[in-house]
Each structure stands twice: as structure tokens, then as C-alpha cells.
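Let us begin with a simple case.
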Amino acid sequence: MLKAVQRPVTLVGGLEVPTWALGLAALGALAALAMPQSPLALPIVRCRVKPSGKYFWPMNPIKRDRLTGKRIADVYFADPDYPRKLGLHTGIDLNGPEGGDTDLGQPVHALTDGEVVFAGPAGPNDRSWGNLVVIWHPGPAVWTRSAHLRDVLVRVGQCVAAGQQIGTVGKGWNGIHPAHLHFDIIVKKPAGWDDWPMHDRKRLEETYYDPWKFLTEKVKPIDPPEWKKER
């Protein structure tokens, strides 16, 4: 029986390449794409955060005490006045000066430079979060979680600058909350970004850090541009 003769393939420019060589080249390319460590398997663009050392309050304006003029939160970290049935409060709730839903749509800003690791609706564990933005900040080595957002203006993998707008104040999933920003400082990565430790104080203290203490004692944040609500 006569064997089939494989003729060389002529490429552009007149170069003749044996068929078997093209086959090996194709297999090599497929293997490179399948290998996680291969440069071909990595994203073309990767976020490389360069900490600037700048810090910003996540909202401006924020509600202030009528007597002292100092900024205040509606609910604080592990607040004893928070409804017990809802568990331990993991962060702080920030609201506009006029309270209620008057800050709906107010810009929410990045605490400092970082990389977005989550952006969008919370998972099935706790849909009441609504939209979340979670950012890893290599400077202070913490994550921030901004919750109950109406609009999400960033995407996963994006580098954000200190003070950059990342979303707007919302009312949580299906509008179940009065408009406000829930803001967390996370020091230990939880199982999911919709995490809530309920009554587990040990897990709360291992996973979270008091955002008010961080903002008023650890760093010196400046105000982002003041929001002017459209009338």
C-alpha cells in the first residue's frame, strides 16, 4: 500500500513549512494557553497599585453633631444600640446632614488607593446588602466594603485612586433600608464579601476593625468634593 505523502505548506512570503511542524506549533500554543503560569493565560492589563498615602472620607457632606459640629455616624462599630436581633454591627452607617433619604445618590469615594476585588450585587447569603464595592488597599493592608449602593461605578480588577468616586448612596436590596452608606474596614478576608458574623464577637474582632477609629485616629482623611444635590 502506498503511503500518503504530506506536502509542505507554503506560507505568505513563499516560505515552505512541513505539515508536522505546524501541528507541533499548534499543540504548543494550546498548551501555553492552558497553563495558569503561562504569560499567555494572564490578563493583558493588570492593576498595579501605587499607594499615595492620601486618605479621604467616603462621603461629603456627612451628618454632624448640632452642638459640637463634629462628624457623627448613625450607627457605630458593634453599636450597643443596634437591634440585637440583627447581630453585631460590622462597620459604621453614614448619612447626609439632613438625614432620611436626602443623601440618596450622593457620591461614595475610595478611602485610599487600591484594587477593586468585588463590585455588584451581594451574594445569596445576605441580599439585604444590595450592591457592594470591596477594595483592597495595599498601603494600610485592609479591605474596605461600601454597601447598600444604588450605583456601582467601578469593576473588578480596576485600580482606583484615593478619593475617586466608586458609587452612589442607595437603599440596599429592593430598597429595604433608609438611604445611607454602610462602610466597613476588613482586616481578615472573610469567606464571602457578603459576610455578617451575627452574634459571634470573636469573629467580628478578628475580621473587622472599627472604621470610625480608623478614620479619626489611624489616618488623617480629607474631604472629597462636596455633593450638591440637584433640586
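The second case is a distinct protein. As before, the sequence precedes its C-alpha cells.
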Amino acid sequence: MKKLKNEAQLVKKALQVGESYAKNRGYAEFSRTTSANAKIEALYRLLVKDNLVVALPPDKEDIPSMKHKLAIWIDKMLPADHELKQVS
């Protein structure tokens, strides 16, 4: 798994967009006390269910891999001129 440039920032953006997506799909909002790892796993599973992200093999499902999948997803969703896609 090759790490993307700005992967941490992409994951942060994916969480923001993913939370809005989940809310629009009818899911309850995450509470303020929900951990980042729980949010990542929940959003990953929702995106897999909706066929927006290719599922990881069951033995490779861990938080770093889920973060990477979310980063790839949001990277594809962002417009080409978005600041997170600019090569530094």
C-alpha cells in the first residue's frame, strides 16, 4: 500500500464529506464522543455497502487500510484544482 501525498489531510476531508453523505443516507450523526477510528470504520463500511469503495479482503481490514481507502475515495471525488490535489 503506497501512501498518498497529503493522506492525513485527505482522510480528514473524507471524514467530513463522509459524515455528510451518511447523514443524507439517513444515518444518525456521529456523537462528539465517537472516536475517529469508529467513524473511519463506519464510513468505510457504508461506502463499501454502497459500492463506492472496493472492499478490502477480510484479513486486511484494519484502520490504516481503511484510512487509505477513504483517502483514495476522496482523492477521486475532489475536483482537479482542489488544494489537496496540488503536488507540493
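The longest helix spans residues 7-24. Residues 7-78 form a domain with the Four Helix Bundle (Hemerythrin (Met), subunit A) fold (CATH 1.20.120.1930).
Keep these points in mind for the review questions at the end of the chapter.
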